[in-house]
UniProtKB/TrEMBL annotation, chain A:
Protein name: Sorting nexin-4
Record-linked InterPro entries: AH/BAR_dom_sf (IPR027267), PX_dom (IPR001683), PX_dom_sf (IPR036871)
Chief localization: cytoplasm
GO molecular function: phosphatidylinositol-3-phosphate binding
Record-linked Pfam families: PX
Compartments reported by the entry: Cytoplasm; Endomembrane system
SMART domains linked to this entry: PX (SM00312)
GO terms (BP aspect): autophagy of mitochondrion; endocytic recycling; piecemeal microautophagy of the nucleus; protein transport; reticulophagy
UniProt similarity note: Belongs to the sorting nexin family.
Region annotated Disordered, chain positions: 1-31
TrEMBL record, chain B:
GO molecular function, one term: phosphatidylinositol-3-phosphate binding
SMART domains: PX
Family: Belongs to the sorting nexin family.
Keyword field contains Phosphoprotein: no
Native organism taxonomy: Eukaryota, Fungi, Dikarya, Ascomycota, Saccharomycotina
Full protein name: LAMI_0D11672g1_1
Protein species of origin: Lachancea mirantina
Length: 444, 595
């Protein structure tokens, strides 16, 4: 396993890479973020020693610590600044996908009540198809990983994690990971529980959560639709780009056809040439726009879908805690009722049972008292448990509500940045084309 | 005139069969009357106007022939719906869809819709505005006009009209208003283009038939059934090329090369001929290359159009979902969040709007590609096909010319050989006579030759040998004829009388004399034909060259206009989209983010 320092790449290339330009608007936005993270430059790495076949891809992560005074994060800033020479230094590390997975797992287990941003899919299919080193695959994943890290860095709790810091800046990460890898046990308890309770529903859903659930469904629906349609748009745009390419070919033939001849032919020929240049520019431009949409914007949309899914998962977890509490509460109520019945003498429904017991020669009175005392201890322990469960559920609910609010904040920010990027990309394309075609029109 | 009327009935191969027929044809021409120069056009015009048919006759004709166009019972106006579309487009400050290649159209088609013609029949009429007058004509009338022009002006590339609507469609979908609007709209554009293109060609503009078409006073049906259209010869090769309705009798004598006739290669060509042939060859090559290029071009235009339409549809859907998204963009709607949510919502909405603008302008762009690129490209390839027809006509004319030339040469050679044989014979006779004075034996032989019955046996041998010779020569000649037939195609003049061309010395004096006289007469006529053809061919060459030159100038101009228009609409599209996205960008800028 190569250490990040072994990688033959210039750290400075990170922020200067072409992708940086599209990211700039997001970085410059007046957001009080203390970390600017850029994931770029996916590189295929060959495992040089034992397993020659197990190549992998590393992603370059450039972290810039913002100098903006932010008292809440002062400590942290200083802490990181200790390691680097200048507070504005950009720290560059290289990580592979499985490193991200580790980070994700640790964060998820450390913060069960947090909505931990999702990682991009493992994309098993691509592994089988052998396409996982393909440009489009790694570019998309790269962008998605960046979204992941940015989300974490936006999160007030998760961003404070030591693990994240180590992940982002440590050059000893590989050693760190190696020691961790064996000991980590996947904690799947919540999930299986959630599955068991899948068919139970919460009785007393708070209004807030009813709304959140409903809206997250709608949001999910809309975003996934937009994602799907954008996919189609990209396909069509690519087709049109192709068409213009062929068109340009035909124009070239026309140009050849009219090139031999009189003065007027020559003038026409020049015009065809000018026009053709415009058409090919349009073809290239459209292709670039499609690429951007495919590699970045659609990835943003997909990530948003996943993020919403996580929100829904977390809410489900909350529901489950509530269900726990409600079940316990039911049980308690039942026990209290039973006790009350016994105390009052005649358990209406238990009449035949008591008669039977009487016939069997059981001293009803003794048995009753026995039962009552049993029930009383049960009720006692149940009450504390119910109280506990309620506390847990309530605390969880509060946490989740907070998390949802955090999600809202991150989502808004992310939407703004992705929409800005989208608009900027479109404006750039159209501006360029308007310039090109204004010239073409003049030339005609 | 009567002669012309007769000639109209004539078969285009009047000399088929017997070899004497053409002679009688020539004999029918009074001396000095073979003037084929077209008489004044106005002359014809006046006769036509006098010959106005009665109303009932016309009605019969109309009802008898008119089954092509569908008849709609409801009198809805296509123009009404079109108007809406127009306003929609003009609202966007774009070129109206009816505006076509020509900026300065002399002739406009202002309206298209169901109309009831003067006989109470329903059809889709196209209202032509020309010179302050309105004329309503229907598609079938355009079709017949074009067809007539093609026959009247074989050397001119006649502008194309949109192809006929497949008849089968009328059966499947008799009258779907929506579909019809598209077809009618397309026809409207293309028919207007046809009229203007025609108007820009002087030969068509000044043609009486074209003038009548644009004259609201004229009933088209009667124009069709009156001269010059009614007296058109069935084969333009047998008529003067610039005015086929006035064939001279000589024209009827011309050979008509088959349409499959290949280039008639000739060895003797003067420099001007060579230059001309090269020029035409060049044009032919150019036409082929253009055609080859146009086909994929058209396909790509079509593809781009449909892809753009698909894109527009997707964008429309996308815009709708963004709007939905803008309404439901937050999970918690706490009161304190309201402003943020509102800002975000507005931002997303603006993106949706930008996409909507994208959608509308893409849709418009795809429409424009249809009217500015696909249709003109289609028109161009139709023009190419037309030009090829004109070139073919010229080629056939040229072959005709060569055939006559070759025939004259052959006939003259025959006359020469006959005359030299005659001379030889008379020399021989003279020698025999001189010898007979000396030798009684020879005198006796001469005597016997002059009275063959007296010397039966030798005469018989002579005769039989002559017959054998005749048979032999016959075989030989049919062989040669066959060859010449292949080379010439089916021709009348070169159709040498099979039984007659015998070795000259085997003919009798009288036979020789008779043939020489006949051949001389024939050669005289051939020379006349040749003179006529030379003039015709020069006219054809001239006119065709002019027309082709005009065509290519027009096409080059077309390209220029297409590119200019395309650049303009592309720019408009780009600018609209840019504007929309910039607006969206500004609104997104205002989204504040909760810290």
């Amino acid at each position: 396993m190569p250490d990040s320092t072994e990688l033959p790449r210039d750290p400075a290339s990170g922020p200067d890479s072409p992708r940086d330009s599209t990211r700039n608007p997001a970085q410059d936005s007046p957001v009080c973020s203390h970390l600017s993270i850029l994931v770029s430059d996916p590189q295929k790495q060959r495992a040089d020693q034992v397993k020659a076949s197990s190549s992998y891809v590393t992603y370059q992560i450039s972290t810039k610590i913002d100098n903006r005074p932010n008292p809440a994060h002062r400590r942290r800033q200083l802490h990181i600044a200790d390691k680097s020479k200048k507070p504005t230094d950009i720290i560059v590390v290289h990580r592979r996908y499985s490193d991200f997975v580790l980070l994700h797992t640790v964060l998820t287990q450390d913060h069960p009540s947090c909505i931990v941003p999702p990682l991009p899919d493992k994309k098993v299919l691509q592994y089988i198809a052998g396409d996982r080193f393909g440009h489009s695959f790694t570019q998309k994943r790269c962008h998605s990983l960046q979204n992941f890290l940015r989300r974490i860095s936006e999160h007030p709790v998760l961003s404070q994690s030591r693990m994240l810091e180590t992940f982002l800046v440590s050059s000893d990460w590989d050693a760190y990971r190696r020691t961790l890898s064996g000991t980590l046990v996947a904690n799947k308890e919540e999930v299986s529980d959630a599955l068991m309770n899948a068919f139970k529903t919460v009785h007393n859903q708070s209004e807030e959560f009813t709304e959140i659930k409903e809206k997250s469904e709608k949001l999910d629906h809309n975003v996934s639709k937009i994602d799907k349609i954008f996919h189609r748009v990209v396909k069509r745009q690519e087709a049109i780009s192709d068409d213009f390419g062929k068109f340009s070919q035909s124009l070239r033939e026309l140009q050849e056809l009219v090139s031999d001849g009189s003065e007027s032919d020559k003038a026409l020929c020049a015009k065809v040439k000018t026009f053709n240049e415009g058409i090919s520019q349009l073809s290239y431009g459209l292709r670039d726009v499609s690429k951007y949409l495919d590699y970045e914007y659609i990835v943003d949309l997909k990530d948003m879908e996943h993020y919403i899914d996580n929100v829904k998962q977390t809410i489900k977890l909350k529901d489950q805690k509530q269900i726990d509490y409600e079940e316990l509460n039911d049980y308690l109520t039942k026990s209290i009722n039973e006790k009350n019945n016994l105390v009052s003498g005649y358990g209406g429904s238990n009449y035949f049972a008591s008669k039977l017991e009487e016939l069997a020669g059981i001293n009803q009175e003794v048995a009753r008292r026995d039962k009552i005392s049993k029930l009383e201890t049960k009720i006692g322990s149940l009450t504390t448990e119910v109280e506990n469960a309620k506390e847990v559920a309530d605390a969880f609910e509060r946490e989740v509500l907070k998390e949802v609010n955090i999600f809202e904040g991150i989502k808004t920010k992310e939407l703004k940045s992705s929409l800005t990027a989208l608009a900027d990309n479109q404006i750039e394309f159209y501006q360029k084309m308007v310039d090109t075609w204004s010239k073409v029109e003049q030339g005609l | 005139m009567s002669l012309l009327g007769d000639s109209d009935e004539e078969d285009n191969n009047p000399f088929a069969g017997t070899s004497h027929l053409y002679a009688s044809g020539i004999a029918a021409v009074p001396e000095g009357q073979d003037d084929f120069i077209p008489t004044n056009v106005t002359n014809v015009l006046s006769t036509v106007q006098e010959k106005k048919e009665t109303r009932s006759e016309l009605m019969n004709q109309l009802f008898g022939t008119d089954v092509i166009e569908p008849n709609g019972d409801q009198d809805f106006s296509v123009a009404a719906t079109e108007g809406i579309e127009d306003s929609l487009f003009s609202g966007n400050d774009l070129i109206s869809p009816t505006e076509y290649l020509k900026e300065n159209e002399v002739i406009k088609i202002s309206d298209a819709g169901h109309y009831r013609d003067m006989y109470g029949k329903y059809a889709i009429g196209y209202t032509i505005v020309f010179d302050g007058k309105e004329i309503t004509r229907r598609y079938s009338e355009f079709d017949t006009l074009r067809h007539a022009l093609c026959r009247l002006l074989p050397t001119i590339v006649i502008p194309p009209i949109p192809s006929k609507h497949p008849l089968i469609k009328y059966f499947i979908q008799p009258l779907s208003a929506e579909k019809d609007i598209k077809i009618i709209d397309r026809r409207k554009r293309l028919l207007a283009s046809f009229l203007n293109n025609s108007y820009n060609i002087p030969e068509i503009r000044d043609h009486v038939v074209f003038k009548k078409f644009l004259d609201p006073e004229q009933v088209w049906q009667s124009v069709l059934s009156s001269p010059p259209i009614s007296i058109l010869p069935s084969n333009n090769l047998l008529a003067p090329p610039l005015n086929p309705t006035k064939p001279s009798p000589l024209h009827l004598l011309l050979p008509s090369p088959s349409s499959t006739a290949n280039g008639y290669l000739e060895d003797s060509m003067n420099d001007e001929d060579k230059w001309l042939e090269a020029k035409f060859y060049e044009y032919e090559i150019l036409l082929n290359r253009f055609d080859k290029m146009l086909q994929p071009f058209e396909r790509h235009a079509k593809q781009t159009k449909s892809h753009l339409r698909g894109l527009a549809n997707s964008l429309a859907e996308l815009g709708a979902y963004y709007n939905a998204f803008s309404l439901e963009c937050a999970l918690v709607t706490l009161h304190k969040n309201m402003t943020y949510i509102d800002e975000l919502s507005k931002g997303i909405e603006k993106i949706g709007q930008a996409i909507d603008v994208n959608y509308v302008s893409s849709e418009i762009l795809s429409e424009r590609i249809l009217s500015l690129l696909e249709e003109p490209l289609g028109e161009m390839s139709q023009f190419m096909a037309e030009a090829r027809q004109v070139l073919r006509f010229r080629k056939l004319k040229r072959i005709q010319y060569r055939i006559v030339d070759a025939t004259i040469k052959k006939r003259e050679a025959r006359i020469q050989s006959l005359e030299s044989a005659q001379e030889q014979m008379s020399r021989l006779e003279k020698a025999l006579k001189e010898n007979a004075e000396d030798s009684p034996t020879i005198a006796q032989m001469v005597n016997r030759m002059e009275n063959p019955t007296e010397a039966a046996v030798p005469a018989e041998t002579v005769l039989s040998s002559r017959q054998r010779q005749r048979q032999g020569s016959q075989g030989k000649w049919t062989g040669r004829l066959f060859k010449s037939r292949i080379a010439h195609g089916s021709s009348h003049l070169s159709q040498s009388p099979t039984g007659r061309e015998i070795e000259p010395h085997l003919l009798t004096d009288d036979e020789r004399k008779e043939e020489v006289i006949r051949l001389k007469k024939e050669v005289d006529k051939l020379h006349e034909c040749f003179k006529l053809l030379t003039r015709d061919l020069a006219q054809v060459n001239d006119s065709t060259l002019g027309s082709l030159h005009g065509l290519f100038a027009y096409i080059n101009n077309c390209w220029e206009v297409i590119m200019k228009r395309m650049a303009r609409i592309l720019l408009k599209w780009l600018k609209d989209c840019l504007q929309a996205w910039e607006n969206a960008r500004n609104v997104i800028e205002y989204i504040t983010i909760e810290s």
